[in-house]
Amino acid sequence: MRTIAIVKRVLREMLRDKRTLALMFIAPLFILSLMYFLFQNNSTSVAKIGVSNVNTSLVKALKNKHTDLAAYGDHANAKTTIRQHNLAAFIHEQDGKLTVTYSNSQPSDTALVKQALQGGVTKLKVQALVAATKTQKRVLQQQAKVLKTVMAQQQKLQAAQGTTRGQTATVGATTKPKAAPNYTVTSHYLYGNADSTFFDTFLPVLLGFFVFFFVFLISGISLLNERTTGTLTRLLATPVRRGEIITGYLVGYGIFAVIQTIITVTFALTVFNVHMLGSVWLILLINFLLAMVALSMGIFISTFANSEFQMVQFIPLLIVPQVFFSGIITIATMPDWLQWLAHIFPLYYGGDALMNVATRGFSLGDVSGDLWILLLFAVVFTALNVVGLKRYRRV
Amino acid sequence: MTQPMIDVRDVAKRFGDNVVLKQISLDLPAGRVMGLIGPSGAGKTTLVKAILGMEKVDSGTTTVLGTEMPNRQIMQKIGYMAQSDALYETLTARENLRFFGELMGVAGPALTSSITHVAQVVNLTEMLDRRVSAYSGGMKRRLSLAIALIADPDLLILDEPTVGIDPELRQQIWAELRTLKQHGKAILVTTHVMDEAERCDELMLIREGIALAQGTPADLKREYTVETIEQVFLKAGRLQDENHSDR
C-alpha cells in the first residue's frame, strides 16, 4: 500500500519532468544512431603509400583495396614526403634493401601498410620460387635431351658393336609439375554473418550500458534531492517502513528502465535490422537486472554526495571504468590483475550475458551465472540502502 | 489524569563535543499546547526529533502515547511539521496531501474528505491543484501544516509553524490549534515569536541545551517578576550566563 503510494509518486514526478524523460528515452536512440553510422563501414579505410625506386613487381604486389600507391623521385625525402602528401608510409628501395618510414599517426593505417608489405613480399617470394622451379625444369629437360642424344649415339655404337644389352634408359620428366591448387573459399559464420559489423557485436553491450548509466544517474540524483530538500526526513516521520521506500524506488524507476530497454531494443531491431540470435525477452531480463543494480547502486552512492554536482563526480569514477570491462574491449587478453579487477564491476557480468545472448544465442540457463551475480549485487546494495536509512530514523 | 501524550525523561544528546541537550525532561498531557522557546541552535529541533524517534539520544527516554520511542506504529498518530518545507515541488498540493495521507495510512473517501478539510483550515482550497513550485513561501508553510493535520493525529508536533505566514493567517491557524486542543489533541510547538508563546498553555525555555524554565506563561512572568515572555526569556538567559561565570 505505502509502496504503491511511493511508486505512484515516483512515476508522477518523472512524467512531469519532460527533459529527464527525453534524456532517458531519446538520448540512447540518438547515440545508437550515431554509433551505427560511425561503425558501419569499418573495412574501407585506405592507406596512402609513397614509393621511391621500388621494384615495379613489388609495387604491383603491394596493391590491394586498402592501399593507394604513388611513386616519388629516387631521392625524395621520406619525412618531408609523408608530411607533404599526408602518406601513411614511405618505402624506399636501395641495393635490394627496403627502408620503410611509417607516419604512424594512425596506428590502424600503419597496420594496413605492414599487412600489405608482408603480403606483397610473400607474393614476390612465391613468384620467384615458381620462376626458379620453371628454370630448373627447363634445365632438366635440356639435360634430358642431351642425355637422350648421347644415349642414342651409344646405342648405335653398341648395336654396331653387336652387343645385345637391351637396356633402355628412360630419363624423362614424366612427372608433370602440379598446377597451383585453385582454392575456392566458402565462409561460414558461427555467429552473425558476413555483414556483421562492430555495431552488431557491441550493440547489446551498449544497450546494457545505457540502461545502467541513465538509471544510476536519475535514481541517484532523485534520492539525493529527497535528502537535500528534507522530504526523506519527512517521509520517515510517517509510519512507512524503510524497506517500503527503497522498494517503491526500485519499482518506480524499474518501470522506466524497462520502457527504456524496450524502446532501444525495438529501435535497434527494426530500424537498424540488427541480428539478435537469442531471445529478446532474455535481453530485456538482463537489462532489467542491470537497472536494478544501477538503481540500488545509485541510491547507495547518493549517500556519499551532498549535491547533484558531487553525484556527477562519481561518473568518471564508477561508470566510465565499467565501459572498459563491459566486453567492448576483450577481457581475456588483459593482464591478470585487470581481469581480476573486471569482476568487481556489475557491467562485466551484464555485458557478458548480453553479448552471449545476442551474438551467440545463449539461453537463460547458459547465462544464469551472470544473472545470479547481478541479482546478488542488487540485493546487497538494496540491503545496504535499507540499513543506511537508519541514519534518518532508528526504526 | 490520563497518561501523558509526551513524556520525556532526562534526555541528553551530544554531537561530538557539542552538547545539544542536557538532561531535559518534559511532559505534555492531552488537550494542552506546549511551546518550546529558545534561540536558534538551542536544541529545539533536536528535542523534537528525539521525541519522534528520529534522533538517537545518548541517555534518557522519550515516550509517546505510552509507547517508548522509536516506534514506527506510533508515527501514525503524530502529525509532524518540519522546520523546512519538505514538499514535492513538481506535484500539486493535492498530490502532496494525497501522497502523505497514503503514507499515514489514510485512504479512499476518508482521505478525500480529509484533504478538503485540511485545505480549508490552511486556506488553500482554491490553490489545491496548482504545482507547489508555483507556491509562495507562506503557502508552502500552510501546505506543510495541512500535511501534518491530514491523518487527524492525536499529537501535533510543529517545528516553527508560522514562519513566513502573514499575521491574519497566523490568527487563523492559532484558532484552529485551539479547536484541536479542545478536541483533546496535544500540541507541541517550537517558536521564537514571543506573542505566540503567550498563547501556549505551557512553556519551556531552552537555551544551550538546558531547560531554563518551565510553566504557564503567567507563572513564568510571576517567577521572573517581569511583564512579558520576552523579558522572561532575556532574564533567564542572563541568569544562565551569570551562573556560568560563577563556575
From TrEMBL, chain A:
<feature type="transmembrane region" description="Helical">
    <location>
        <begin position="278"/>
        <end position="302"/>
    </location>
</feature>
<feature type="transmembrane region" description="Helical">
    <location>
        <begin position="245"/>
        <end position="272"/>
    </location>
</feature>
<protein>
    <submittedName>
        <fullName>ABC transporter permease</fullName>
    </submittedName>
</protein>
<dbReference type="InterPro" id="IPR013525">
    <property type="entry name" value="ABC2_TM"/>
</dbReference>
<keyword id="KW-0472">Membrane</keyword>
<dbReference type="InterPro" id="IPR051449">
    <property type="entry name" value="ABC-2_transporter_component"/>
</dbReference>
<comment type="similarity">
    <text>Belongs to the ABC-2 integral membrane protein family.</text>
</comment>
<feature type="transmembrane region" description="Helical">
    <location>
        <begin position="371"/>
        <end position="389"/>
    </location>
</feature>
<keyword id="KW-0812">Transmembrane</keyword>
<keyword id="KW-1003">Cell membrane</keyword>
<feature type="transmembrane region" description="Helical">
    <location>
        <begin position="21"/>
        <end position="39"/>
    </location>
</feature>
<feature type="transmembrane region" description="Helical">
    <location>
        <begin position="202"/>
        <end position="224"/>
    </location>
</feature>
<keyword id="KW-1133">Transmembrane helix</keyword>
<feature type="domain" description="ABC transmembrane type-2">
    <location>
        <begin position="168"/>
        <end position="392"/>
    </location>
</feature>
<keyword id="KW-0813">Transport</keyword>
<dbReference type="Pfam" id="PF12698">
    <property type="entry name" value="ABC2_membrane_3"/>
</dbReference>
<feature type="transmembrane region" description="Helical">
    <location>
        <begin position="314"/>
        <end position="334"/>
    </location>
</feature>
<dbReference type="InterPro" id="IPR047817">
    <property type="entry name" value="ABC2_TM_bact-type"/>
</dbReference>
TrEMBL record, chain B:
<dbReference type="GO" id="GO:0005524">
    <property type="term" value="F:ATP binding"/>
</dbReference>
<keyword id="KW-0547">Nucleotide-binding</keyword>
<dbReference type="InterPro" id="IPR003439">
    <property type="entry name" value="ABC_transporter-like_ATP-bd"/>
</dbReference>
<dbReference type="InterPro" id="IPR027417">
    <property type="entry name" value="P-loop_NTPase"/>
</dbReference>
<dbReference type="Pfam" id="PF00005">
    <property type="entry name" value="ABC_tran"/>
</dbReference>
<dbReference type="InterPro" id="IPR003593">
    <property type="entry name" value="AAA+_ATPase"/>
</dbReference>
<dbReference type="InterPro" id="IPR017871">
    <property type="entry name" value="ABC_transporter-like_CS"/>
</dbReference>
<keyword id="KW-0067">ATP-binding</keyword>
<feature type="domain" description="ABC transporter">
    <location>
        <begin position="6"/>
        <end position="233"/>
    </location>
</feature>
<protein>
    <submittedName>
        <fullName>ABC transporter ATP-binding protein</fullName>
    </submittedName>
</protein>
